[in-house]
Write a structure and sequence with these properties.
Blueprint: E1 26-28, E2 35-40, E3 42-43, E4 53-56, E5 59-65, E6 71-77, E7 82-83, H1 90-101, E8 113-123, E9 128-137, E10 140-151, E11 154-162, E12 172-173, E13 178-180, E14 183-190
Antiparallel strand pairs: 1-5, 2-4, 2-14, 3-13, 4-7, 5-6, 6-8, 8-9, 9-10, 10-11, 11-14, 12-13
Length: about 190
C-alpha cells in the first residue's frame, strides 16, 4: 500500500533525561529496554481504503549527560527500522517495508544513520524538560524540539516532524487520491543502563 517517508524521525527524536540526583553523570541508553516509534498517517480522498503505519526504530546507541551541562545524543540504524502494522497481511507489510527503506523514502543504504544531538535543555520543573536539538535524517539536519517527562525510570515524549524538511516527498498512490501526510509523529520511551 503506502508508506510514510519516515524520518524517524525517526527517527530519532531527541530525548533529554535530566538530572536524576544532585550529581549528574553520563549514562548510556539501554537499547533493549527503550523504544522509538514513528506513526505515519494517511490522507486524501480515498484514504479510507489505506492504512496508517506504525514503525519501530531501534536505538543503536545513545548517551545522556545529566550534569549541569545536560545533553543527549542518540542514533538509529535506518536499515533496522521495521514496519509493525499487525493488521496488514505479511506480504503487504513486506512491500511497505521495502518501500520505506528504498531510495523513494529513507534511502537507508545511502543514509544509514539517523541521529539526534541536543543543543539545549531547559527544566520545566519536577521531572519535565524542554529539549532543543538537531535531527539528522536522509542527509539533512533540522532543528527539533521535544518535551520530555520522567516517570518510573522512563523518559517519555513525542515530537512531530515533516518529511519534506528532510528532502523526503510523501508517498502518493492511486493518482494522489491516497497519500501519506507530510507530518509524522515520533514517540519514545527511554530507559538508561543501570
Amino acid at each position: 500500500m503506502m508508506l510514510g517517508k519516515l524520518g524517524l524521525g525517526i527517527l530519532a527524536i531527541g530525548v533529554w533525561l535530566g538530572p536524576t540526583g544532585a550529581y549528574g553523570q553520563r549514562k548510556a541508553i539501554d537499547g533493549n529496554k527503550s523504544s522509538l516509534k514513528i506513526r505515519v498517517f494517511k490522507s486524501g480522498a480515498f484514504s479510507a481504503f489505506a492504512h496508517d503505519h506504525e514503525i519501530e526504530g531501534p536505538i543503536a546507541e545513545g548517551k545522556i549527560d545529566s550534569s549541569a551541562h545536560a545533553s543527549v545524543q542518540l542514533s538509529v540504524d535506518a536499515r533496522k527500522m521495521r514496519v509493525l502494522d499487525p493488521e496488514i497481511a505479511a506480504d503487504k507489510r513486506a512491500e511497505i517495508q521495502h518501500t520505506m527503506l528504498s531510495a523513494a523514502v529513507l534511502d537507508a543504504e545511502r543514509f544509514p544513520e539517523i541521529s539526534y544531538q541536543s543543543t539545549g535543555v531547559t527544566s520545566r520543573g519536577d521531572g519535565h524538560w524542554d529539549v532543543r536539538g538537531e535531527l539528522t535524517l536522509h542527509g539533512k539536519k533540522q532543528a527539533v524540539a521535544v518535551e520530555v517527562s520522567l516517570r518510573d525510570g522512563h523518559y517519555r515524549g513525542s515530537a512531530s516532524i515533516r518529511q519534506s524538511d528532510f528532502g523526503i516527498e510523501p508517498i502518493r498512490i492511486a493518482g494522489g487520491t491516497v497519500k501519506v501526510k507530510d507530518e509524522l509523529k515520533v514517540e519514545f520511551d527511554i530507559v538508561l543502563v543501570q
